Hints:
Elements lengths: L3 E8 L2 E6 L7 E7 L2 E11 L2 E6 L11 E8 L1 E4 L7 E2 L29 E5 L6 E2 L4 E7 L2 E6 L8 E6 L3 E3 L6 E5 L4 E4 L3 E4 L22 H6 L7 E5 L6 H11 L4 E9 L1 H10 L16 E7 L4 H19 L4 E7 L1 H14 L13 H9 L3 E4 L5 E10 L9 H9 L2 E2 L4 H5 L12 E2 L5 H10 L4 H25 L6 H18 L13 H16 L7 H19 L6 H15 L10
Helix pairs in contact: 4-5, 6-7, 10-11, 10-12, 11-12, 11-13, 13-14
InterPro entries: ATP-synth_a_Xtn, ATPase_a/bsu_AS, ATPase_F1/V1/A1_a/bsu_N, ATPase_F1/V1/A1_a/bsu_nucl-bd, ATPase_F1/V1_b/a_C, P-loop_NTPase, V-ATPase_asu
Function: Produces ATP from ADP in the presence of a proton gradient across the membrane. The V-type alpha chain is a catalytic subunit.
Family: Belongs to the ATPase alpha/beta chains family.
Amino acid sequence: MLTKGTVKGIISNLVIVEVEGPVTQNEIAYIDHEGTRLMAEVIKIVGKNASVQVFESTRGLKVGSKVEFQGHMLEVVLGPGLLQRNLDGLENDLDKMDGVFLKRGEYTFPLDEEKLWHFKPIAKEGDKVRAGSWLGEVDENYQPHKIMVPFSMKGEYRIVRIIGEGDYNIYEKIAVVEDNEGNVTELNMIQRWPVKVPITEYSEKPRPYKLLETGVRSIDTLNPIVEGGTGFIPGAFGTGKTVLQHSISKQAEADIVIIAACGERANEVVEIFTEFPELVDPHTGRKLMERTIIVANTSNMPVAAREASVYTAMTIGEYYRSMGLKVLLMADSTSRWAQALREMSNRLEELPGPDAFPMDLSVVISNFYGRAGHVILNNGKEGSITFIGTVSPAGGNLKEPVTENTKKVARCFYALEQDRADKKRYPAINPIDSYSKYFEYPEFQDYISSEVSSDWVEKVSEIKTRLLRGKEIAEQINILGDDGVPVEYHITFWKSEFIDYIILQQDAFDDIDAVTSIERQKNILDLVTEVCRTKFEFEKFTEVADFFKELINIGKQMNYSEFESDSFYGYVNQLKEKISNYQLSDITVK
């Protein structure tokens, strides 16, 4: 028997309901508004009153409206056909909706109910299975989509019957399982799971250590992220967050890409919808959208739906991770997600924390980031969710609560700097403030030494030190003037500029320079390190600037050349020739 209730108070999207029976935290309810059912979620219970956040506009809603509680939390439908979908935070298929604006109370099913999928069984009759076990697979946009025992099933089961290879829709019975007490359950290709409950059907969750190649040099070389790692990108408006996100999504070594637009401006979400279908996947040559899912909520949608979108995206990511796939989840922007939490906290009249954010903001962010990671499944296979969120701090203030609390849990910090963006030094990642804590992991150090180069960590540390020293000298030159510091200082400064132009700066719109393989990044790192270690002899500081500007120009042309082509080696030889005219010691350019 479903619990009923009556609306007693309305504060924007927060509705106070007097209940007539038992309700639970995070339970879903529907409010009847003139024949339209508005979905809501219980967020607080005090006595007979339940506070619910409504996922729709509450305009026109009146005290006395009837409410019906559903007995379950906010759930998503999981099954084949999610790839290439445009969903909202409640997993409605936006492509099935008409009109410019979403209609209140209109909910659509996210999957194609008519499509036939070619099912190939993996398990066989008599096999022992449990939640998350693979029963079979279908081909979903060239990805092996595993059909699994529903995550909600507890204990061990025996397969009584499993259907043979063939074409079936998502509702057809593909298996029958029996528990130890003889209870029989029929299974099809879909299942449901509450978004705020992590999917934990795996045997182990070790520390991640495998490098996730993104093709972006300032990330892979200086501050790498790993498969199953976490990172975030804070930056003010105009610092290039969107282009950097697109670059990572397009180029990263991931099987599945999920974009969560939580509270973005409508025009930015439209850009995602229009640009992503046109992007070509460099790994397959087909459209990137084939392995992408977009979960979108714009800033003019109710704040409750904005909060739900990130959980919906993460749950879908956990579903694909359970298939042994590598998932990349990008959230833009977690600041607006946190603002949604702040609004609901204020309406509940809770004790405010810094900048009026909830007191438990750090816990909420930590729990959410903790759902990402690299896991070993019960069958020994591996899967991962790499989560990168962007933060939009007001005025570029990196000391505000969302940035500060995210820094506590994310292992990679990519600070986009307004000054670098103004100078057109893209990607505008500040090399001094940014960091990757994965460098501290012995597992990662062993992996990078064996897979890339034994001296990689040492050279990266040297490059970072030179960048810091160059910044310090730039400040001295700015105060004392060019002729106020020794020529050696100018050499040190211009070596840091050489690092900046050749490694850090990258053209996201050039076919060659947009993505740099790890092999080429090793080549560039070796080259730049050798140049920086070379001792040069100059009489005047003007000679230093002219010489390094020529080197930088040759190096940039080298970056625009196809790796190991004739033109590439031509530019390398030009660098060697230029350097030999001013060096005091031999240099070997690799």
